[in-house]
From TrEMBL, chain A:
GO terms for molecular function: metallopeptidase activity. GO terms for cellular component: cytosol. GO terms for biological process: proteolysis. Signal peptide: none annotated. It comes from the Bacteria. InterPro entries: Metalloprtase-TldD/E_C, PmbA, TldD/PmbA_sf. It comes from Hydrogenispora ethanolica. This is PmbA protein.
Automatic annotation (TrEMBL), chain B:
Pfam families: PmbA_TldD_3rd (PF19289). It comes from Hydrogenispora ethanolica. This is TldD protein. One of its GO terms (molecular function) is metallopeptidase activity. Residues 241-467 form the Metalloprotease TldD/E C-terminal domain.
Length: 434, 474
């Protein structure tokens, strides 16, 4: 199929350049209620996504228009030619500054080793299930339901500049809901885990922690109205918190004017009293479903430091937007690494705090820096005792807290994010549930 | 204009009928959903133009069979000789099931789906068919909208105008059903981003409906208001945390309906014992002023269809009737387990995904109050508008609604002071029982996508009238 598409594109007189991205996915899926298998699904699908480029000049300026189209495998030759012609017509109407396609070049790094590639895909299902249910052994707490997805994706990327890359990627997803009951009060904890390689102990540990959180939530009191308080984000919300910096160091945001970050300047303001962040991108991160030796444009990628000790060293950018800014591209790398801080979590808890491990949906606005969420599970320390709490919410803006925030020395990994286990923020607005 | 069905599906139908017939020799129940939905997304901003495939584009098939104990599914998007497709579905149904039973996994038993003989087709109507307006004209209209915005404000950092159109075509075949449908929906967004003294704020206005490119004219008419909204946010403060009397605009009311008793009554959650609502059927969960609907046939909006992705006809479910929780919304397999009738809410993200109980058009019914009276009745509170996002908690009835803006009300008048963003949280029954006034006009909004947990995105609409309630803001 990909050769037929390539020939049609090469023979079209109006196509100046093109890329073809092919994904052939084989998937096995299991759906459990408690321990019973409720449904099984399988999938075998092919997707071909084509971008056609049309170059032109106007008023002495070079432009490159583009349009994307999906070529379904059930399209006939004449239908593909018609779809390409429509895309070319649309691309000619798109007036974007010219930028280059990725050129052929040797890869710099290798993909991290995985293990789902060995043996039959179906053979991994019992192993995944065993790890999932290994710690489901409590009377008061249990796995309510779970969904297991295991994907093998054959990727190929071809462009008119001669790039032709392919690899096989694996991705597993476990959606797990855990319940815990104390007296007549029953609560649930939800997690959606993604990983590219099988690590049974890590899966079992996640479920064990969920059961622990379930018990804590079942015993939780309502969050008091604390007004302004020290807040420690722990676990899953930490990744979302750092989404602000991930976005603001992006070449596209800088080019479009939605980021004012400048290379050489501090990303945390002028009077940093807490930890200074260091942010890097690592396409070789083990277990991450986003690890790859080349980016979605086919550019060879390698680990790169973007922010060191709070200072912006370079922008994160794909070939197009790096070209617009006149800087070398890092490639579009989706693995984010934030270094840990200098102190252990225990030291961050020296003063009274509200530690929050689970929100309904913690959100960071990557443009404005506004953040907030409803608390599903936290621990309130008033200087004397620590009790689990639930309900209420926090809200704030990262620009108001970034000059004095502290990162734990302990690290966590959640798929394509490695970063501090916890982040301590001062004077955050806390709405109580009482 | 009448929306025509898919030529591709018409051509494939004969083979798919044969596939159902062949599979029926091995399985007591067989169905196939075939989809051919295409769409484009056009975007224009200060520094670029995009023409992309809509994320809702799909063309493929999903076969469901009764494997003797429960149901197995196989999603595919290549047509092969019928015998080969039969082998592929059989292998897919048995492969992982066999492996899991060998490993000793217990397997649930479900009843056999009983269907009544149904055949027919549905074609939606739209003002302008997407193909009747050229790509050049769509991009030119979006560029005019952008230029109009930049002519209005010097504080604009960027202004994004996005228009997306999707033509949906589906065929559902089983031993006893032959159904076809085709309709068009569209959505659009205006995203002004403004900056003053280094402070950046963004706003949005969204548009949607069972419409085609005529939506572009609605968007053009809203440019001044969208800029005004964004600029007003530059002066907004943080809301002092606390409980307030609030008036929620229809868009926020839709978010409440969606998160509170939309997700909370999806009946696959009843099957899993994840929904607290199951324990409260027949009981008061809201003010008597509250009546709430969900259904593809309950309104004409982006989630209106003739049949759902399991071949069940569209319905209009009254979830809450004058404050009393009456029933939930159900997919077919959950209904089988629960012994209840399916309500036409079995939806898939695409042919590649499982069907779940999902919302369609979810909204509160109108009341008799006027907005002016509602504002006049508040001593200190906020008028909340601009629904950004929400999250459900069906097990514990917590609710989180992220709202763009609150306009302060003091002594029955809008003061002109703004707070932004606003996080509204609370315990669902407390919030719904506190509703004391309901306005007369219902508006629906369908520009977003609804997830189940953190995945399975589906098109829905929601809305309602203005309501007055008590809520915690932060």
């Amino acid at each position: 199929m990909i050769e037929m598409i390539r020939q049609i594109l090469q023979n079209h007189p109006e196509v100046d350049a093109f890329t073809i991205g092919a994904e052939l996915t084989e998937s096995l899926e299991l759906f459990f209620i408690r321990r019973e298998l409720d449904m099984n699904r399988a999938k075998k699908v092919a997707h071909y996504r084509v971008t056609v480029y049309k170059d032109f000049e106007a008023d002495g300026v070079r432009y490159r228009g583009s349009a994307q189209v999906e070529i379904h495998p059930t399209l006939s030759g004449p239908e593909i030619r018609r779809a390409v012609a429509d895309a070319v017509f649309a691309a000619a109407l798109v007036r974007n500054p010219w930028y280059p396609l990725v050129e052929p070049a040797p890869l710099i790094v290798e993909a991290p080793p995985g293990n789902f590639g060995t043996g039959d895909l179906a053979d991994w299902l019992p192993a995944l299930t065993e790890a999932l249910y290994r710690n489901d052994c409590h009377e008061a707490g249990w796995i309510n339901s779970a969904e297991v997805f295991l994907n093998r994706i054959k990727l190929r990327l071809v462009n008119s500049a001669g790039v032709d890359r392919s690899r096989v990627a694996y991705g597993a997803e476990l959606e797990v809901i855990v319940n815990w009951r104390e007296a007549d009060h029953e609560v649930e904890i939800f997690r959606d885990l993604h990983f590219a390689a099988f690590g049974p102990d890590a899966i079992a540990a996640q479920v064990r922690e969920m059961l622990h959180y379930g018990r804590e939530k079942a015993l939780a009191r309502l969050t008091p109205a604390l007004r302004q308080y020290t807040v420690i984000l722990t676990g899953e919300p930490v990744r979302e918190f750092f989404r602000y910096y991930q976005a603001q160091v992006g070449a596209q945001n800088v080019y479009e004017g939605t980021s004012l970050f400048k290379v050489g300047q501090s990303v945390q303001g002028d009077a940093v009293r807490g930890d200074r962040i260091s942010l890097s991108l690592d396409p070789t991160l083990p277990f991450s479903t986003a690890s790859s030796p080349f980016d979605p444009d086919g550019l060879p990628v390698q680990p790169v430091v973007i922010v060191r000790d709070g200072r912006l060293l370079r922008y994160r950018g794909d070939t197009r937007y790096a070209s617009y800014l006149g800087v070398p591209p890092t490639g579009n790398i989706a693995n984010l690494v934030i270094d840990g801080g200098s102190r252990p979590l225990a030291e961050l808890k020296a003063d009274p705090y509200l530690e929050i491990a689970s929100f309904s949906d913690f959100q960071m606005d990557p443009l404005t820096g506004d953040f907030g969420g409803e608390i599903r599970l936290g621990w309130y320390n008033d200087g004397h005792q620590t009790v689990p709490v639930s309900g209420g919410s926090i809200s704030g803006n990262i620009r108001a807290v970034q000059e004095e925030m502290y990162l734990s020395r302990e690290l966590q990994q959640e798929n394509n994010f490695v970063g501090p286990q916890s982040v301590k923020l001062l004077n955050v607005s806390v709405t109580g549930a009482q | 204009m009448r929306v025509e069905g898919s030529e591709f599906l018409r051509g494939a139908k004969s083979d798919l009928e044969k596939l159902v017939g062949e599979l029926a020799q091995y399985f007591q129940y067989v169905s196939i959903l075939a989809t051919d939905s295409w769409g484009k997304r056009y975007g224009v901003q200060k520094s670029g133009v995009q023409v992309e495939e809509s994320r809702w584009t799909e063309r493929g098939f999903v076969a469901r069979v009764f494997n003797g104990r429960n149901y197995s599914e196989y999603s595919f998007n290549q047509l092969q000789p019928v015998a080969d497709m039969v082998d592929a579905v059989r292998e897919a149904a048995e492969r992982s099931l066999r492996r899991m039973t060998q490993a000793g996994a217990p397997v649930a038993r479900l009843p056999l789906i009983e269907e009544t003989e149904t055949e027919g087709s549905f074609h939606g109507e739209v003002g302008i068919l997407p193909g009747r307006m050229s790509v050049a004209d769509k991009l030119a209209r979006l560029a005019e909208i952008r230029d109009q915005a930049f002519a209005q404000s010097e504080r604009l950092v960027d202004f994004r105008a996005i228009y997306e159109e999707v033509q949906v075509a589906k065929v559902f075949l089983s031993q006893r059903k032959q159904l076809e449908q085709a309709y068009v929906w569209s959505q659009g967004y205006l995203f002004p981003i403004v900056r003053r003294d280094g402070r950046t704020k963004r706003a949005f206005r969204a548009f949607s409906g069972l419409k085609g490119p005529e939506l572009l004219e609605e968007m053009a008419g809203a440019v001044p208001a969208s800029i005004q909204l964004a600029e007003s946010l530059l002066d907004a403060a943080a809301v002092p945390p606390g409980e307030y009397e609030v008036i929620c605009a229809p868009e926020v009311v839709g978010l409440i309906a969606h998160e509170a008793f939309g997700h909370g009554v999806e009946m696959d959650m009843f099957v899993k014992k994840r929904a607290k609502a199951e324990e409260y059927l027949g009981q008061a969960v809201a003010s008597p002023l509250v009546t709430m609907h969900d259904g593809a046939a309950a309104a004409c909006h982006v989630s209106s269809y003739w049949f759902d992705d399991e071949g069940t006809p569209a319905g209009d479910t009254i979830i809450i009737d004058a404050g009393i929780l009456r029933t939930g919304i159900s997919d077919l397999l959950s209904a089988l387990r629960l012994g209840t009738p399916p309500t036409g809410n079995g939806k898939r993200e695409s042919f590649e995904r499982k069907a779940y109980a999902r919302m369609t058009n979810t909204f509160f019914a109108p009341g008799n109050d006027r907005l002016e009276e509602m504002i006049a009745s508040i001593r200190h509170g906020y008028l909340l508008d601009g629904a950004e996002s929400g999250m459900e908690d069906p097990k514990n009835w917590g609710i989180q609604c992220m709202v763009l803006r609150g306009q302060e009300i003091r002594d029955g008048r809008l003061t002109g002071k703004l707070v932004s963003p606003v996080l509204m949280t609370g315990y669902v029954p407390d919030l719904l029982r506190s509703i004391s006034m309901v306005s007369g006009e219902v508006r629906l909004f369908g520009s977003g996508a609804c997830g189940k947990g953190h995945k399975e995105w589906a098109k829905v609409s929601d809305g309602g009238p203005y309501i007055k309630a008590k809520a915690r803001l932060g």
